[in-house]
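Researcher: I need the complex structure. Ligand is guanosine-5'-triphosphate. Inputs:
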Amino acid sequence: METVAGIVIGVIVVAALLWFFLFRDKGEGAGKLEAPTPEAKPSKKAEAPPAKAKPEPAKAAPAKAEPAAKPAAAKKAEAPVAKPAPAAEPEDEEEDEEEEEEEAAEPAAAAEPAVEAAPKKPAEPTKEAVEALRSGLDKTRGGFIARIAGLFRKKKEIDPELLNDLHEVLITADVGVKTSEKILENLRERMNNDGLSDEDAVWVALREEGRMILGKGQRDLRLPSSPSLILVVGVNGVGKTTTIGKLASRFKEQGKEVILAAGDTFRAAAVPQLEVWGRRVGCTVVKGKGKADPAAVVFDAVKKAQETGADIVIADTAGRLHTKSNLMEELKKVARSGEKALGRPVDEVLLVLDSTTGQNAIQQAAQFKDAIEVTGIALTKLDGTAKGGVILGIVDEHELPVHFIGVGERVEDLREFDAATFVQALFAKPDDETMAA
Ligand SMILES: Nc1nc2c(ncn2[C@@H]2O[C@H](COP(=O)(O)OP(=O)(O)OP(=O)(O)O)[C@@H](O)[C@H]2O)c(=O)[nH]1
Ligand SMILES: [Mg+2]
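Model: Output:
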């Protein structure tokens, strides 16, 4: 009996000990779970990346925009996905535009892949083409080029001093500091390698440098499928509307049906000015009522072109609004609207620059490029300035193709740009008598 009682007491003692230890462990465990509340944050952070990694669909977009062989088109197709809706946009429009962009995303993916314009082949310029351009460049040749010729009259020997003087001429001819430096560096290298023995060799080298700079990235306009949309942008007075009229005339001559979109709704006289061109060239002008929304005008113009089977829509835009940021926001909106109507990115955004503004044109290009995807340049008023050297700075610094140059006010004075012809016309060794500085 005593043994049984001993066993029972033993079991009770063991059970009590077990119960005590189990109870103590649970208490400690609970403390451990509760205490690290701060540690719970890192664990939340650890969860965060999947949320950030959400842009999965964005990653998928380039895949949709597939044509791997056409990087530029793919890049353009990505843009609306990558670009967040600009915060400056009024709220009510923001939603609409997000919807617009989503809607636009579908056709963009399904649209015919844009036909990439082949880079221009460096053909030898014809004598006639060079002659025809030369008179348009008379002022620049009379200034900048005559001054280079003047250097050789003072000095026959090609030495570092002459190259320094040449450097100064380039800078004061609005070629731009960076581009002038680059040209000079190459000329110095040629001189050190005995490649600049005399004046003729310097002219040859200048033409080669010019051709290298201006020929880079040159390509024809990319006008893939009917209708194509060319958006024409630039500050006020540079020659946008005139260039549009001249361009429309050129396309009409090629048998294309053109529609002009009166997207400068800010300046009262802008619409009638475009209408004059429309009548002159024989093409429809789509306009809004009063101070219409330019984005809506461009949208309507593209839709009209789709309905009527027109080939090209050329859209005019304002050169000035109340502020520069207003202007840039408006242009972004116009571009988005054009994109929505087309179902693909705008085909060409042609920035018009006025060569008489010299260095300012280089800065303007930077500002427009910051705001929208400029695809090419039209450089106007080369006939009225000695600052034509600015074309080298624009192309070199901004790596944009020049499609057209304006050398007068007549329709035929808008010339298709060809780097080789331009360089030959500009850097031809001048006749000493006629080109004396
Ligand atoms: N000499 C010369 N004049 C030009 C050339 N291109 C345009 N112009 C003139 O420049 C002036 C301004 O041209 P517009 O086409 O009205 O300029 P815009 O950029 O549309 O101006 P806004 O509508 O005010 O923004 C006009 O008198 C044109 O005839 C050119 O290549 N050479
Ligand atoms: Mg205008």
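Model: Summary of the prediction. DSSP finds 17 helices and eight strands in the chain.
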